[in-house]
Amino acid sequence: MATIRITKNKSEINETFTLPSSKSESNRALLIKALANQDISIKNLSEADDTLLLNRCLRMIQTCGVSGIPLVVNVGHAGTAMRFLTAYLSIKEGKWLLKGSERMHQRPVQPLVEALKMLGAEIKYVEKEGFPPLLIQGKNLQGGRISLNAGISSQYISALLMIAPMLENGLMISLEGVLISRPYLEMTIKMMAYFGVKVDFSGNKISISCQEYIPKEFRVSPDWSAASYAYGLLALAEKGKLFIPGLKADSLQGDRVLSEIYRSFGVESIFTDEGLTIRKTSCVLKLFEYDFIKCPDIVQTVIATCVGLGIEGRFKGLKSLRIKETDRIAKMDDEMSVFGYRLIEENNEWLLKKFSEVDYQSVDHVFKTYNDHRMAMAVASLVMKTGKIEIEDKDVVSKSFPAFWQQFENLGFGMNIF
C-alpha cells in the first residue's frame, strides 16, 4: 500500500482540471444495455474500477450457459454493482452466487432482497442474514405492487426500476417516508426514458408497465461528484481559476448543486458551451449549513473545505454515510481531529465544531483512507493550507477517479510516492 506525499509549490491555481466520466451514468447505462439484450453503444464510458468491474461481471454473466452449479460473481468493493446485479440476476435464468469483499459483506442489502422476494425472487443469504453473499436462482418474475421505505439507498430503488420493464405485470412502488438521494433516482428515470421506457413518478408512487428498452447511442457526461475536488482546491487557494471541460449546469447528476454550495465558500461558477470555469472570489461565511439528503457523495469534500477555511458547520442528511465504503462520518471525525475539529451528533444533525487552535503547517499526520476513494480525494485539498500532505493507499482513487493524482501533478503540485 503506497503512500503519496503532495507538496504545494504555489498559492495560485490557473489550469485545466479534467474530470472522469460519470460512474453513476455509466453503471446505469451498462445495466440497461444488459437488460435490453441488444447492442447499445455507450460512448465515454467511465474507467473507474466500479464500472470496469460491473462491465466484466455483466459480460461474464451474459456469456455463461445455464448450469445447476452456481456461477460465482464477485463485485469486490463495488456497492453499486452489488445492488444492480442483485436485481438483474433475480430475473436472469441461472443459479448465481453473488459475493464481494469483506467490507461488502458488512454492507446491508436486505431492503432490496426482501422487495425482490415480494415479487417472487428466489434469494438466500449464504452467511449473515441481511447481508451478502447471496445465492440467487434467476427466473421470470411476474412483478406487481410493493411498498418501500423511501429512506433506504436510492440504488435499491434504481435497481428495481431498471428491471421493472422486464416484469410481466410491471411494477408499482409506494414509497413511505422521506426520499433520500432523490437526484440519483431522477437520473435513473431520465435514463430509462432516454431508452424508451415510460416511468410514471407521481407523489409517492412510481409505476412502470412491461415494456422494451429501445437501443440508442448514449454518451456519458463528466462526473459532477469528482468536480467537488476542484471546487475544494480552489476554495482553499489564495486566488486563481480552474477550467473543467464538458461540465454542464443541466446535468442529470444531483451533485451539480456544488455550484450553489461553493458560492458560499467564495467560488464563482461560469458555464459556457465548452464547460465550466470556477473562479476564486472572497469568502465571508462564518457558519456553513446545508442538507445533503440529495447529494451525500460530496459531504467529505465540504467538511474538508470548512476545516481548511476555519469554518464551523451544521450538516443534515448524512444518514447513508454510515454504510458506504467505510463509516464516513466516523472516519472524517477521526481525520479532521488533527486540525482541532470534531463532528458531534445533535438531533439527527452533525455539528462540525472547532475545539482547539492548530498550526496547520505543523501537522505531521499520514491521512488514512479506510479503503474509501472519497476519503483520499476529499482531504487532498487541504494541502493548500498545510503546504504538504501525506495520504495512504494512493491507488484507492481508482474506484472512481483513476487519474486523480495526475490532475494534481498537472496543476503544479509536487508528488512523491513511498
Counting DSSP E segments of at least 2 residues, the number of strands comes to: 22
**Overall pLDDT, averaged?**
94
Low-confidence segments: none
Radius of gyration: 22 Å
Secondary-structure-derived class: alpha/beta
Kindly state the percentage of residues in helix.
Answer: 25-40%
- Total helix count? 13
| N-to-C span | 9 Å
Task: Report strand order across the widest sheet.
Answer: 20-21-1-22
Largest sheet: 4 strands, mixed
Strand content: 15-25%
Question: How would you sum up the global shape?
Answer: globular
Describe the protein's architecture and organization:
- The chain is an alpha/beta fold and 418 residues long.
- It is 31% helix and 24% strand.
- The protein contains 13 helices and 22 strands.
- It has a 4-stranded mixed beta sheet with strand order 20-21-1-22. A 4-stranded mixed beta sheet has the order 2-13-15-14, with helices on one face. A 4-stranded mixed beta sheet has the order 4-5-7-6, with helices on one face.
- A hairpin with a 2-residue loop joins strand 18 and strand 19 (349-354).
- Helix 1 (23-36) packs parallel to helix 2, helix 2 packs parallel to helix 3 and helix 9 (299-309) packs parallel to helix 10 (328-336).
- The radius of gyration is 22 Å and the shape is globular.
- It starts with a strand and ends with a strand.
- The model has no long low-confidence stretch (mean pLDDT 94).
